[in-house]
Amino acid sequence: AQAKSAFYGWRITGLMLGPRAGGTGVYIFGSTLFILPLEQALGMSRATSSLLFAMANLMSAASAPISGYFMDRVGPRKVLLLSVVVCSLGYAAFAAADSVTLVFVAFLGPISLTSLNVAFNVSTAIVNNWFDRNRATAMGVLQAGAGMGSLIILPILAFAINLWGWRAAALLGGGIILILGLPGALFAKDTPEELGLFPDGNAARSNDGADDRLTGASTREALRSRAFWLLAMAGIFFGGAIVAVQVHFVPIMVWRGSSEVTAAAQLTMMAAASIPQVLFVGWIADRVGRLTVGAGLSLLAAAGVTLLNAGGGGWTTWVAALMLAGAQGIYPLTWATVGQIFGRRSYSTIRGYLMGLQGLAGVATPVAAGFLFERIGGYTQALWGVAIMWALAAVVLTMTLRSTSPLFTDQPRIRA
Fold this sequence. Notes:
This protein is an all-alpha fold. The chain has helices at 9-29, 35-42, 46-74, 76-96, 100-130, 135-164, 166-187, 219-223, 226-255, 260-288, 290-310, 315-325, 330-342, 347-376, 380-404. The longest helix has 31 residues, at 100-130.
């Protein structure tokens, strides 16, 4: 077997850091920066701006199984190339929008349909193809890259909004996605087999030399398994909680007494703190259990939201942001688990269905948080609901571990 230090998969992971950082920094974390400027410039209510980003999550969720299908058939890299170009053009259209209707069209069309391919879907699929034993570690590196990108991109976007306005910042965001996304789309390889290699640098697993990418469950087998539906339920809980906090993060901190500039700094600090956290949890999860660590991160996030809700502002908002930083680490652990259980044969399609179900919660929770804010003038009830969702995610992830533990081996396979 090829030496671990020389394994080409780590170079592929490095190439995937570009789109991961760009998509996460501009869309996943950066979207919250646009809420207050859009409300001020176009007269949106908090409920309307929440609806915009909630519907964007719905469109992303609806497109995830379709994107996954095409990734499994034509390869993730081609999907990434198309997504990077279309997403960048979408941000240009967003920047040019002069009405609420056109803002919705730009965000719900080209941006929402492609942004998650740039930020998550393609890089996760490619890394899943290249790694087995060190899958969570590699996906943790991806997530850390997303945090590093956000650490750089968020202050740039916040500065652009403050100095030039939200339109210039939106145009800049599209350029960032294009510049960071194209190298990975042009030069990465979908599978190690394209270079005569195998996952983790191992020799072929089959005596007849069959292509290792064909191993694993079909989509139908996955949909009939208990593991799939437990992972889906966990994703609905933690995904809905994460999206609610992401969309409303800056408004929540302003509600808690921070200025908009301070809230942007807290968001940046949270992204920075996520880097060492996700690197550590990815490494440790490959050794002690991916779902066990994921459940622990869910409980930590629940505690962070509780502190944010009950702490009353000031230094507690900074501590809560630090505690919430690790929540992003739940994603790579979950997707590594999907690859471990179901293999590579239909990974992107299976993951796409999970993303779609998870996205439904990402539609409801931001809208509910915005509605509650409009109705009572605060986020107290919404944050208690988010804390409960993270606690439930920890419970279901633990149930998933107990029900599927016989499947957790270095050789991905499925037993319904």
